[in-house]
Amino acid sequence: MDLRIYNLFPRLYQTPTEWFSVAKRASEMKFNAIYLNPFLYTGGSGSIYSISDYYRLDNVVFDGYTRKEGFQIIREFLSYCSELELLPIFDLVANHSAIDSIMVRQCPHWYQHEESGEIKKPTFVDNGTLHRWHDCACFDYTGDEGLVDWVVDLCCYYLDMGFKGFRCDVAGYIPAEAWEKIISTVHIQHPQTFFMAEAFTVGKDILLQLGKAGFDYCYASSRWWNYRNRVEQKKFWFFENLENIRTSGMESISFPENHDTERLMTEYNGNIEMVRQELSFIGMIGSAFQITSGFEYGYRTKIHVVKTDYHWQEDTNIDFTKDIRKINELRIKYPVFRQDGEIRMYSQNDARLLVLHKIVDEQQALIVLNCTSEQFSVSVHSLLHAFDEKEWSIKDFIIAPYGVWYYVFPNVKKKLL
Questions:
Q1: Gap between the Cα atoms of 20 and 83, Å rounded
Q2: For residue 205, what is the enclosing H or E element?
Q3: How far is it, in rounded angstroms, from Cα 52 to Cα 67?
Q4: Cβ atoms within 10 A of the Cβ of 40, count?
Q5: What is the pLDDT of residues 250-303, one digit of tens each?
Q6: Looking at residue 391, what DSSP letter applies?
């Protein structure tokens, strides 16, 4: 399935009624799915990923609404998404709850414990540094199967409400056996449900296990590959990441930024052409494609899972909506840009260019990126000298600063190399 995802960050809007106009804009940009970060009742830290009650609503997003009124708005929103042919995606936080959740007191056997008897808090490693989420309590899937049943019931509750799929937070930290039971049981009642794994820091073996467990998609690390740097180009970890996802039976999801990363406009010091290039690269390189609220208007302030609210909206005078729509239309037109496939990178004498050859079944494409702020002419012969067949109707071209050029080979029945 060609999944084109708009990530709506709920707290970035003053009221949930604003979500409707956001969904309409997403539809106009040719997205076909809309993913909502958690909008549930948080623990004392206020982090949307530290959930205290999975059946109550966030008192920041739904301030002034009763529980009944809030859930009615959600149902109406999901119905509106259906009218727009947008698939709503729920953010499933099943690795942990808030440390002060009532579940910790009512079901302590559902949690991991330290030797001291204290509830274990989740940890993760980022760039070699160990981090601990002190506001969270780590679920334990090795014991009472009541926890798996609870997750299944939670999924079915929100599927019955109108959601169609799940983005599963830190999915790689939950045993694959538990995921297999959850996914297979959910599919009995809702067979069309799709599951997306967030699993950035895990290895190939875990990805294989997640694929076997039933995950359909997995987020890729394309956002962190500095393809403009000649040294980084020669580090093939990014291609290995895409290939590991593909061989696991899942499809990749690429994105230019999300709620955990800096905004591209900040990283690139407001260079609009660099942002446009990154958007094109991300939109063409893998399978599914996602942007986050504010990207379309060049927001610069990194999203914060505790502090962000509607006051963080920005007046930028920047509009990438047409660029985003163009990428989505390109994906709709050419299967090679909406599916994972074999990707080859060609070393060029001209260090200013990055040349990629993407192969998906019988469709193949060249993707050429200008890694500099200069405009210059590109010789097609220099691009195709490595290919067996050279009779394609391609002419020399001028590539703009940080420009992207592509060519989809017509009616190719065999690999060009």
A1: 11
A2: helix 204-213
A3: 15
A4: 21
A5: 999 999 999 999 999 999 999 999 999 999 999 999 999 999 999 999 999 999
A6: -
pLDDT digits (tens, 9 = 90+) for 130-145: 778 999 999 999 987 8
**Strand pairing category for 33-36 and 4-8:** parallel
Segments in 119-191 forming alpha helices (H):
146-161, 176-189
Q: Which of the 8 DSSP states describes residue 110? A: G
**Partners of 195 in the beta sheet?**
166
Other CB atoms within 10 Å distance of the CB of residue 71: 16
> What DSSP line would sit under 48-73, residue for residue?
TTSEEEEEEE-TTTTTT--HHHHHHH
Closest to 259 measured CA to CA, from 308, 190, 208, 219 = 308
What is the C-alpha to C-alpha distance for residues 257 and 298, in angstroms, rounded to an integer? Answer: 11
DSSP 3-state of 145: coil
Q: Nearest-CA neighbor of 89 among 8, 170, 204, 200?
A: 8
Closest CA to 262 of 292, 218, 229: 292
Strands 251-254 and 217-219: parallel
Alpha carbon of residue 44 to chain centroid: 27
Distance from C-alpha of 363 to C-alpha of 409, rounded to nearest angstrom = 7
* Tokens (6 digits) for 44: 């004392």
pLDDT, position 411: 61
Q: Is the pTM of this model over 0.85?
A: yes
Strands, sheet with 342-346, edge to edge from the N-terminal-most edge strand: 342-346, 353-360, 363-370, 404-409
Phi-psi region of 323 (alpha: psi -120 to 50; beta: other; left: phi over 0): alpha
